[in-house]
Amino acid sequence: MLNVDLKHRFDDFTLDVSFEAPAGITVLFGRSGSGKTSIANAVAGLLQPDKGRITLAGRVLTDTAKRIRVPSHKRRVGYIFQDGRLFPHLSVAQNLRYGRRFAPRNAHPADPDHVIGLLGIGHLMDRRPASLSGGEKQRVAIGRALLAGPDIILADEPLAALDAERKAEILPYFERLRDEMPVPVLYVSHDIPEMSRLASTVIALKDGRVAGQGPADEILSDASATPLGVRAAGSLISARVVAHHPDGLSELEADGIRLLLPRVPGEPGSRVRVRIDAQDVMLSLSEPVGISALNVLPATLTAMRKGDGPGVIVQLDAGGTALLARITRRSADALDLQPGLKVFAVIKAVSVPRDAVTSDPAQGE
């Protein structure tokens, strides 16, 4: 468990946060300039806060009141940057060994063969960084961090410099890191699909403050905790794969509701996580008939949030599953939407892209 409680004044804003980051991937999420990287740097010892206390697995890293500041090289922190920062004159194998060389004597670094297999970099051992793709460089950087025997890994927007194809290549490796390795990860991001896919826990930041914190599915389905505004709102649903049908659709079950989506990964009985954008959810006061949409879910309206523009975020409870719908104010007024109203949420199966469905990190619990 990482515990962070710090306050630091910059020229243009004040960072004032307090949160806990448990095992898994904890995502620091918010707009650029909200303080995400500054928090990661404080954990790494690269930023000394004006006031605060940071502990990792019960070990004090920073305590300004007691004038404790553990040097960066003794914090057992693995840092993954946007550009990988591999040594260009060393081979992949030598870069990996460099990380292992700095593991503390009493640490228990990961098994090299397991890490190399986990990251799929066995065929790269003799190559130099200049000959690697962006995704390959980041996989090697992850391996080097793991082999240093860290108590935590910090990842500062590690996919920001990659194009969509390279991101799709490396995301599964971060999922495997989350699901198979015991090292917790503090992950900086402002990319919603990326966060929805990876996060176990979300710390939502706004203007240097914590706007919301908790399990990813709860925070991302809470309209009041969305720091990027109504345009970025959506729901994260944990569901069980029921069946794969011959017509290419998969049937899912979540808290008693059924969803039909284009073929999803996983065998029947496995659990997946589904991201549904609020703008892809329509509302009806009566159960619609004779429509092409396959998912019509009875729900209760629980809350509404109006943005600065014409949009409104409607929060729904669909049999225990939280859903968000984004509609216009004009539609909300025409339907006379109020908390407690019974409605039907309509979701087109094809509106949920394939990369919005991933394995559920809580599957093994």
UniProtKB/TrEMBL annotation:
InterPro entries in UniProt: AAA+_ATPase, ABC_transporter-like_ATP-bd, ABC_transporter-like_CS, Mo/tungstate-bd_C_term_dom, ModC_ABC_ATP-bd, Molybdenum_import_ModC, Mop_domain, P-loop_NTPase
Gene3D superfamilies on file: 2.40.50.100, P-loop containing nucleotide triphosphate hydrolases
Residues in Mop domain copies: 290-356
Keywords: ATP-binding, Cell inner membrane, Cell membrane, Membrane, Molybdenum, Nucleotide-binding, Translocase, Transport
Pfam families given in the database record: ABC_tran, TOBE
Cellular component annotations (GO), alphabetically ordered: membrane
Domain spans labelled ABC transporter: 1-232
Domain of life: Bacteria
Membrane-crossing segments per the record: none
GO MF, any single term: ABC-type transporter activity
Record SUPFAM superfamilies: MOP-like, P-loop containing nucleoside triphosphate hydrolases
PANTHER family according to UniProt: ABC TRANSPORTER I FAMILY MEMBER 10
NCBIfam families, alphabetized: modC_ABC
Protein's recorded name: Molybdenum ABC transporter ATP-binding protein
Source organism (scientific name): Roseobacter ponti
